[in-house]
Design brief:
Elements (H helix, E strand, L loop, with lengths): L1 E3 L2 E3 L2 H10 L6 E4 L18 E4 L3 E4 L22 E7 L2 H9 L5 E4 L3 E3 L4 E2 L15 H7 L2 E5 L11 E2 L12 E5 L3 E4 L5 E6 L5 H5 L6 E3 L3
Parallel strand pairs: 3-4, 3-7, 7-10, 8-11, 10-12, 14-15
Antiparallel strand pairs: 1-2, 4-5, 5-6, 8-9, 12-13, 13-14
Length: about 220
């Protein structure tokens, strides 16, 4: 656990382990560019999870050890990866056919904003100097059977990324079912933002103070 501004938080590796714990055995999973790629290093050893990357790779393993990188074997974020037995490369068009055809069980994406109803904004902030980069995010967000988001709850300037309504250009509408942040995990949908897990040392009241979105404690 790290401390920032006296607020207890999960580290990025702890966030990744929390996501990995919820991925079921046998799932075909796409891990988005950036923070979600860390999930590959925390998948339970007793589960078979098949990792897919939109640039045309399936059957990836954890990140390679330092000095053992092969830059002919990379994911969509140009990070070196490993390939497990049975893994393979294939055409970019075939990769998108998998994404669009509903063949992915789960995708884990980063985000600039997520609304309580599950709308996703993760490709542009709309700022004049921003470089829009949607990549395959729209295809993944809508094509996967479940779309999870992994992000810090607040921006560097303290604004909540979990919002009532997205102000940034949308990637997908009503597509996100769960959000994993550095302080809590939220289920989204018709019931709004429901808290299902909170970092140790943070009360529900203190969590509510971090976002203007009305939260419901669903931890039972």
């Amino acid at each position: 656990m790290s401390e920032q501004n006296t607020i207890p938080t999960w580290t990025r590796d702890q966030m990744a382990a929390r996501v990995a714990a919820d991925i079921p055995d046998g799932a075909v999973v796409n891990l988005g560019i950036g923070l979600p790629t860390k999930v590959a290093n925390h998948l339970p050893s007793d589960r078979e999870v098949i990792l897919h990357s939109e640039n045309g790779v399936i059957g990836m393993g954890p990140a390679p050890a330092k000095g053992e990188e092969d830059y002919d074997l990379i994911n969509a974020g140009k990070q070196p990866v490993t390939l497990l037995p049975g893994g393979c490369y294939f055409h970019h068009a075939d990769s998108f056919a998998m994404m669009r055809g509903g063949h992915l069980d789960v995708c884990v994406l980063g985000a600039f904003q997520v609304s309580v109803s599950g709308d996703l904004a993760n490709w542009s902030t709309g700022a004049p100097d921003a470089i829009p980069a949607v990549g395959g995010a729209m295809d993944l967000a809508i094509g996967a059977k479940k779309t999870y988001v992994m992000m810090e709850l607040r921006t560097k300037t303290g604004e909540s990324k979990l919002v009532d309504q997205c102000s940034y250009p949308l990637t997908g509408i009503g597509c996100v079912s769960r959000v994993y942040t550095d302080v809590a995990v939220f289920d989204l949908g018709a019931g709004g933002a429901q808290v299902i897990d909170v970092v140790d040392g943070l009360s529900f009241a203190d969590l509510q103070a971090l976002t203007p979105v009305k939260l419901t404690d669903a931890r039972g």
